[in-house]
Amino acid sequence: MKNILLVALLALGSLLPAQAQNPIIRDVFTADPAPLVYHDTLFLYTGHDTASVSETNYKMPDWRVYSTTDMKHWKDYGTRLSVKSFAWATGDAYAAQCVYRNGKFYWFVATFQRNADPNNKVGNRGAAIGVAVSDRPTGPFKDAIGKPLISNDMTLDQKHGWDDIDPTVFIDDDKQAYLYWGNGSCRWVKLKDNMTELASPITVFKPKNYIEGPWVYKRKKLYYLVYASAGTKPEMIEYCTAPTATGPWTYQGIIQGNVPNSGTTHPGIVDYKGKSYFFYHNGSLPNGGNFRRSVCVDYMYYNPDGTIKPIVQTTQGVAPVK
């Protein structure tokens, strides 16, 4: 019944285009949003869906950057990084996140590693995580280390080749940086201060109903692990909380149900100018769908005990801020 009401509300919202904000990017198809607040500006890093209406798989050649200072008007910087930026990479530009540290911006990306055999031009060695670096939030970015930071042969708990995707980075209060990622299982590892080397062994765990797309952050004294999940029907958004960045993680439940016209969704969470925002994607633009997705944003609210209230998906989006 709740899902029926949600669909009805979304349909009603679509009749009010003058008030509609979601999806926030309408001229191209975007996915996997990752917000970053730097000074007084919110930067948004996204994937880019270019599959045709008839195609039945992802076609994602690059990553894009947008920014806003009022949550209403979005500046489009276009493509700022692509799979071709990494000499070792091939395939698609999957979910990514950019973080700021020590005067530089580090863009952690997921793609595939090219087969080392030059005669096998179409082969690959599985999904891998790379990192690009820039002095500015909009680039130019370049490959920071000339090789994958995480390669498929470093994680053997999953048998499929696309398990090393969807990186998210969290920097704790003590300045220790952590990288989380994974499809099928979630992994974490400490990063060195230079953000381009591992500082610990890889730890593997699997939160309840976990599929992919982790997003980790801290609010007050509580750590949050939010992720795309199986729920009752892929994909929903569920989450866990913990007293530290490494757990132990306590399952808390579903906070976002299925999104319109897309089997996937992906969380990106940030506080900006006194409000909490939840970014995600759906397939609600005309001719949109599973492989032609669009980024949206709605408000995020917390209960007094720190648990997250269910996300209300809207076409109206969020109000402007000064």
TrEMBL record:
Signal peptide segment: 1-20
SUPFAM superfamilies: Arabinanase/levansucrase/invertase
Gene Ontology terms, MF aspect: hydrolase activity
Entry keyword set: Carbohydrate metabolism, Glycosidase, Hydrolase, Polysaccharide degradation, Signal, Xylan degradation
A Pfam family that the UniProt record links to this protein: Glyco_hydro_43
InterPro entries noted in UniProt: Glyco_hydro_43, Glyco_hydro_beta-prop_sf, Glycosyl_Hydrlase_43_Enz
Family: Belongs to the glycosyl hydrolase 43 family.
UniProt protein name: Glycoside hydrolase family 43 protein
Lineage summary: Bacteria, Pseudomonadati, Bacteroidota, Cytophagia, Cytophagales
